[in-house]
Amino acid sequence: MNKVSLDIIGLTYSESSTGAYVLILGDKHSRRRLPIVIGSAEAESISIGIEGTKGNRPLTHDLFLSFANNFNVSIMEVVINRFRDGVYYAMIVCQQGPDLVMIDARPSDAIAIAVRVGCEIFAYESVMEEAGIVMEDLDEEMDGQDDDNNINKVQTETRLDMLTYSELEDLLQMAIDNEDYAKAAQIRDEINGRKSINL
Predict the structure, then answer these.
(1) Boundaries of CATH 3.10.690.10 in the chain?
(2) Which of 20, 36, 119, 142 is deepest in the core (most CB within 10 A)?
(3) DSSP SS3 for 15
(4) pTM, two decimal places
(5) Looking at residue 147, what is its pLDDT?
(6) pLDDT for position 78
(7) Most distant CA pair in the chain, distance
(8) CATH topology of domain 3-131
(9) What pLDDT does residue 171 have?
(10) How far apart (Å, rounded) are the C-alpha atoms in residues 26 and 7?
(11) Which residue ranges in the chain fall short of pLDDT 50?
């Protein structure tokens, strides 16, 4: 499987899901983005890991690493390996002596560990193709700002399942242009759901 190397682009509060955040991962070699909705505890842990701050007591992800270190287990990389029914799956690739072990994990937990050890974060190309969002050139001027506002209004006031495929595609592009990754992820999931039904 081809792997795509990812950077953490940002972490933002999700307006569409109460208490949730959107973790935005970016392909290092293209303008593709992978938005993942995560919980507030995981978002806080990722943020703490990025900043490198230490608390008085270890968090769960710190405890995991302490456990791994005490048993001579090295964290090699994190791979987002599946996207199914709107849910991401990941694995933590560990090494103990000559043995490589793959541990199933939620992407948010895996990335919270990755930022602490400084290992690479990857996604399989198949995941990027199915769930990734391609950013258009944000330097280009967007025409029809009033139209943009109307589209956003339609999106917030209309259920996505009531819109046509073409309307969903327009809304998806608008959400991407506005860097509203939470809305883009919702629209993308609706589009992918329809595609799976038609298969």
Answers:
(1) 3-131
(2) 36
(3) coil
(4) 0.71
(5) 43
(6) 98
(7) 61
(8) Bifunctional nuclease domain (3.10.690)
(9) 82
(10) 5
(11) 137-158, 199
